Fold this protein.
Amino acid sequence: MDHLTDVYANVEEPSGQKKSLSKSSESVYEDVLIETLEPNRTGATLSGVKKSSCRAAAVVLGLLCLLLLTGLITLGCLFSKGNSERQTKMIQLQTSNNNLTNVQDNFQKRVEELAKQRTDLQGKIRDQHTKQGWVYFNGSMYSISSLAMSWLDSRAYCVQRFADLVIINSEEEQKFISNFKKPVWIGLTDRETEGRWKWVDGTPLTKSFWNPLEPNGQPFQRDEDCAENYYLEKNWNDDKCEHKKMGICEKMLPP
Ligand SMILES: [Ca+2]
Ligand SMILES: [Ca+2]
Ligand SMILES: [Ca+2]
C-alpha cells in the first residue's frame, strides 16, 4: 500500500513536472492549433494580396480610362474649335466675295449710267448744232462758212465756233465734203515749209486726194500754200492763201 502511495507520490511529487507536462500539452495544443489555423491564415494572406493587386489594377485601369477619356475630350474640343474657326473663315470669305460682287455690280451700273449720260450729251450737242446749220457725219459736225474769205480768215471763222478747218481722214469723209459741191478751203497747208503739207492739228499728210495735176505751186514757183477741195471727189488744189473762198469747219464730238 505504501509502495503504491510512493508511486503515486512519485507521480504526484514532481508537481512541477506535472505542470511541465501540462504546459507541454498546452504548447502542443497551441502548436496544433497554429498548425491547424496556419493554412487558413496563409490563404487569407494570399487572398488579401490578390484583392490588393486587383484593387491596384482596377485603380490603374480607371486612371488609364480617365486619361483616355480626357484625351478624347481634348481632341474633340480641339477639332470642334478648328472646325469652328474654319467655318468662321469660310463665312468671312463668303462675305468678302459678296462685297466684291456688290462693288463690281455697282461699278458696272455706274459705267452704264455714264455711257448713257454720254450718249444723251452727244445727242443734245448734235441736236443743238443741227439747229444752227451744222451737219453730222461719222462722229463730227460740219459747217460751211457763209462768206468767202482767205484761208487764214476761214480758219479763224471756224475757231471762233470751237472748230477748225476740216481734216480729211478717209475716203468716206472726202466724199462727204465733196457733196457740198463748192470749192472750199480745207485744213491743209505748206505755209511753214514748201512742199511739206500738214493738217491744222500738226499731223503730216499721209493720204491725199490731189487733182492729178496738183499741187503745182512749187514747179511753177507760185506761192500756193493752202489747199482747197473742188466738189469732185478727188480734186484738191493748192492755191494762194489770200484768195477768198468758203471754208468747211469740222467739230469732233466728244467720244
Ligand atoms: Ca476729219
Ligand atoms: Ca506751196
Ligand atoms: Ca495749184
Summary: DSSP finds four helices and eight strands in the chain.
